[in-house]
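Assess the record.
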Amino acid sequence: MALLQEREDSHRHYINSLTKQIAQLKEALQERTQQLQESLDKAKIKGILPQGLESLHNTPTQSDLKEFFRSQLNQAEVNSGVKLPSEYALIPFDTFTLQSVYQLETGLTRHPAERPVRKDRRDELIGTVETALHVLNGPEHHTDNIRRKHTFSPSDFIQGLTRTERDRGSIYELTFKGDRPQDFTQLVLFRPFGPVMKVKSEIVNTQSIIINIIVPLLKRVDTFKQFIKNFREVCIQQDGRVHLTVVYFGRDQIDKVKAVLDQTTRETRFRSFTLIQLNEEFSRGRGLDVGARAWRRSQNILLFFCDVDIHFTADFLTSCRLSAEPGKRVYYPVLFSQYNPSIIYRNQTLLPSLQQQLVIRKESGFWRDFGFGMTCQYRSDFINIGGFDRSIKGWGLEDVHLYRKYLHSKLMVIRFPTRSLFHLWHEKSCADELPPDKYKMCMQTKAMSEASHSQLGELFFKQEIQVHAQKQM
């Protein structure tokens, strides 16, 4: 009886929601009809009609408007990618939870996380989550082959992605927990500057998706030990569905790298490693390319191109699996880059632990929106797109070239601020032998990675600040 009562309440809420949505749809449709009629009348007077709407100049009907909304959906980048001229043309997604919105630009302050969220923005996103819950819990959800033992609730909502194409509408991709730890339900909604439309709803089982983490390496053994510590905690102890490929350049210190891997195997019994040694000049693109092509099994493996100074959590591995799809989507996360801890925490006696340092605040780091080195993509897509430009040596540009290849293809490029992926600060040196363009890029990255604008200003004007403080005494 309790279950029946719960189900009855759920249906009653659903009916009330539908009634409200129907009223909103009628009102929006009426308003859009009037707006469209006015614009068509003006266009008719001028002798110019919008392309594709010539047939509506007489009497726009509800079916005509529905067809117009459908055409908006077909033209938007929802189900398939569109060719883009450059990296500047891509519209990144915003990430949101029930509490926060993470975006690359929030106005003048450039906060990495918008908290508290602006009321109109919060209402929009919460309303979208509520719409998704009504869809998932509605009586017709069985037609989408969604089987669930209990009703979806806000606590099942994991994360949402959203972006707005100014001439199309807003896209929402929402992820909910499934019945099992490796099951997730993804719902895609589209708002064509009118009522929200359901695009698709599907269960995604990530149980069998193995991630091949590829790391190019030259010396830096201490940093590699730190990376392996993170790898053991996240990939071995928590996830277990990964393979690690290390591509090492040269022979110097490779014995130490082997020792680290051997120790990991002895202590954890984890054997899914591949160590490739190349006797040639270091090239990040070359190392990643070799690592990707070294996978000989028939399975179309999911690749994660990673650097040794990257820190990630199990949530990132989930994002990697959910955001990349063979033949359809590649994932280019925007990671959070850590500032120099010795500057950030210079007023403290002891540096905080690494976990305490990994917080998303404008004082502690920045979204590395200009970086395209970390990416999740399937091996088949990487091979079909042509891989990296092997003529590029050393540091930089190889990742941008690969990124542009995907932008010029029909694959969707998924890009959003990823709060579970961090770039750890390290001393950066720019080699004298770099050509001028690469050396300039290297120096710009070095300057941006030290501290925020205000913190650097405090250091630069330190003497003036001290003189002023003394005068106030």
User: Anything to note?
Assistant: Residues 2-46 form the longest helix (45 residues). The radius of gyration is 26 Å. The chain is about 40% helix and 20% strand.
